[in-house]
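Figure 6 in text form: structure in, sequence out.
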């Protein structure tokens, strides 16, 4: 029965309703198939998010960045049936992914600590270690994503069971001819064959994890980021934000036969629809959650212009929930990345919206960790070269016009690298067609580069690139504001200490400092009378250069002192607010 829903002829016709129906069900907290996820503010900038799976519950507590992604020290508590504690994870997060130390504590007080970058364990899993026929999918999972195995264990599936399950999938995959374009179809067929076995339950819980992780990845979709930027700017339209900050996204739409004018008309409808829901306050602690709900509803409304928003949404929710119950979330989007093709559009906002939704789905599909590692094992064993996997880390400011960045190639893809380095520009997701700096020190897989020619005060974006015979891959995109020592007593300041910019300040101000080791950071601002006017506890922050952005618009003009306590060290700088 599931195979019929995977037929390619049905995907395009059900794409908008099924996908947006799932998004909206999750956004509005429907309890039609699982208890609702919920995010609440618990004060002092902290949020608490609750997710339910088939057999467990995860409660995550920490801070979120301006895009609603976890940042800093984040604590997750997993409990099973009857509220029984399974384990607690305390991890450093950046852009919603594990970046740095992660400690897992079990009920018996036993602990394990891992070091991650972009959710992958360090020391990284190297392709040179997996270039033989014994590179099992379980081995790759164990070496790259131990957090996934720990989560499965919390739901009752220990490593022995998971290894047997994954070995079974690989054995069944070996019965198919080697065809890269058909891998996703093979994988889905194998899962179909296992649904009538005891492995059916692990397939179900993995689909839950796919959904949770996929929604976290979806927060990085460019259009969503542009909508957030538009509200925070207070004046620009979404189209203007996309054109200036996310031009690569606009080029992607152009490749799908969407003209700039067509997309601008779509953005006008999107902005108008979101504004019709009422005013959003960017300073509200639940701003991001409210925006996400309105964003998804607005998309749904545009795709269903012939119906009223409320009745269409209700029908979508009702029709999507049974599909999830019967066929699993994986069946809805499992092999979508191999079959979505550019549609022939009439360029109406509704039709543009269909392509927009399609462009968001690859982010969702990144949450399918099980498929990812099985594909890698299958490719290694069959000698198939894959594009590399890379990551980017900010290192430190050198001056007002240069910075140092760190690049990692976590997996070479089964082939030697031809080039690696950093791509950078003044807009999001730069490519090799923009500014490039090839690696200067280190190895092809672990290197540093220095970017020169920056303009003080401007915002820049950068990401690692790596090329092999399969193509070019990019790491996560980071942003930074070029800065240099400034202010009263900062003329001879060590750039690894506390920098404040702009100084004089007015509203949003950046406090930049360097940590030799991961440490707990508390920032305090004191006025000239010695009164503490602002205190922020940022918890454990990673080694290297860190930036804290603070809105000072509520403070009167005058002279202030900022103190940053990291461990036992106090860093102090003076600054002034002038409007």
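Output sequence:
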């Amino acid at each position: 029965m599931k195979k019929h829903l995977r037929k390619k002829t049905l995907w395009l016709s059900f794409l908008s309703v099924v996908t947006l129906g799932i998004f909206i069900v999750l956004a509005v907290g429907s309890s039609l198939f699982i208890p609702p996820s919920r995010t609440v503010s618990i004060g002092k900038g902290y949020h608490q998010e609750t997710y339910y799976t088939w057999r467990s519950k995860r409660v995550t507590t920490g801070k979120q960045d301006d895009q609603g992604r976890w940042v800093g020290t984040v604590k997750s508590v997993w409990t099973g049936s009857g509220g029984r504690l399974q384990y607690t994870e305390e991890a450093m997060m950046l852009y919603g992914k594990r970046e740095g130390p992660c400690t897992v504590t079990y009920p018996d007080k036993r602990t394990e600590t891992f070091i991650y970058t972009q959710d992958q364990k360090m020391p990284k899993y190297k392709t040179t270690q997996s270039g033989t026929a014994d590179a099992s999918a379980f081995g790759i999972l164990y070496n790259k994503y131990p957090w996934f195995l720990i989560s499965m264990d919390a739901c009752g599936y220990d490593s022995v069971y998971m290894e047997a399950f994954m070995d079974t999938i690989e054995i069944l995959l070996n019965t198919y001819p080697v065809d890269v374009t058909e891998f996703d179809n093979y994988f889905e067929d194998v899962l179909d064959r296992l649904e009538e076995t005891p492995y059916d339950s692990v397939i179900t819980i993995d689909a839950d994890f796919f959904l949770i992780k996929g929604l976290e990845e979806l927060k990085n979709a460019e259009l969503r980021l542009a909508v957030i930027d538009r509200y925070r700017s207070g004046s620009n339209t979404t189209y203007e934000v996309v054109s200036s900050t996310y031009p690569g996204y606009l080029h992607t739409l152009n490749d799908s036969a969407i003209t700039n004018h067509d997309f601008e008309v779509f953005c006008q409808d999107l902005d108008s629809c979101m504004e019709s829901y009422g005013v959003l306050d960017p300073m509200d602690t639940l701003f991001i959650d409210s925006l996400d709900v309105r964003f998804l509803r607005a998309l749904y409304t545009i795709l269903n212009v012939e119906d009223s928003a409320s009745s269409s949404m209700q029908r979508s929710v009702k029709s999507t929930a049974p599909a999830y119950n019967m066929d699993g979330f994986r069946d809805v989007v499992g092999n979508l990345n191999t079959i979505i093709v550019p549609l022939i559009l009439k360029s109406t906002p509704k039709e543009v919206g269909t392509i927009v939704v399609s462009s968001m789905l690859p982010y969702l599909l990144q949450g399918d960790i099980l498929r990812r590692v099985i594909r890698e094992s299958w490719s290694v064993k069959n000698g198939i070269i894959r594009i590399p996997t890379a990551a980017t880390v900010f290192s430190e400011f050198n001056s007002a016009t240069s910075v140092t960045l760190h690049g990692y190639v976590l997996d070479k893809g089964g082939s030697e690298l031809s080039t690696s380095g950093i791509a950078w520009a003044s807009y999001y997701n730069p490519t090799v067609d923009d500014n490039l700096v090839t690696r200067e020190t280190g190895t092809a897989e672990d290197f540093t580069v220095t970017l020169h020619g920056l303009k003080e005060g401007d915002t820049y974006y950068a990401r690692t690139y790596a090329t092999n015979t399969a193509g070019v891959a990019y790491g996560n995109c980071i942003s930074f504001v070029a800065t240099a020592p400034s202010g009263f007593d900062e003329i001879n300041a060590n750039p690894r200490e506390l920098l404040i910019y702009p100084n004089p300040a007015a509203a949003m101000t950046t406090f930049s400092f360097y940590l030799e080791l991961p440490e707990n950071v508390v920032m305090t601002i004191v006025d000239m009378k010695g009164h503490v006017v602002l205190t922020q506890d940022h918890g454990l922050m990673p080694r290297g250069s860190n930036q804290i952005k603070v809105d000072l618009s509520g403070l009167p003009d005058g002279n202030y002192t900022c103190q940053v306590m990291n461990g036992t060290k106090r860093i102090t700088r003076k600054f002034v607010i002038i409007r």
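Caption detail: The mean pLDDT is 78.
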